[in-house]
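Following up on my earlier thread - several people asked me to post the actual chain instead of describing it. Fair enough. Here it is, all 175 residues.
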Amino acid sequence: MATTLERLKTSSSIAGKYLTFALGKEEYGLQILKVKEIIGYQDITSVPQTPPEIKGVINLRGKVIPIVDLRTRFSMEEVNITEQTCIIVIEIEQNDNTLATGIVVDNVSEVLDITAEEIEPAPEFGSSLETNFILGMGKVGGKVKILLDIEKALIDQNLMNITDIYEDDENNAEM
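Reply from S.P.:
Thanks for posting it. Predicted structure:
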């Protein structure tokens, strides 16, 4: 069990600006420094034999960017694309490289400055549920925002392999 001092240190280390977005009725936040840009939903080229959460790739100003559907990644039901659906292009660190990846979300809400006092640690559900991708729970305006460690939420062996493929293609194209 974390002491109050440990919880305060953790909360203050993750306090800051968050881009908030929705998936269904739930609201999430990711650290604004990870966000490269927000673009409207566009046609995604599917790639054979990729995991279900990998929607495919897009060409963003000459760069091939893998697109991850967070709904599928979080085992949520699929919904129709609307005019509110968008892609958040983020930068993640992998093996000393910075990689651009897009995540599909239902809609983007706002940028919030969340203070340490507004952040609670991620709940513990026991050892059977993996919640290490949750930085904490932001309590803002009477609502709870699930603050994501987007790198931990996205990086697993399947996603590591797909980003490796696009990174290799990009490096070969530069030669």
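Confidence is low (pLDDT under 50) at residues 1-9, 169-175. That should answer part of your original question.
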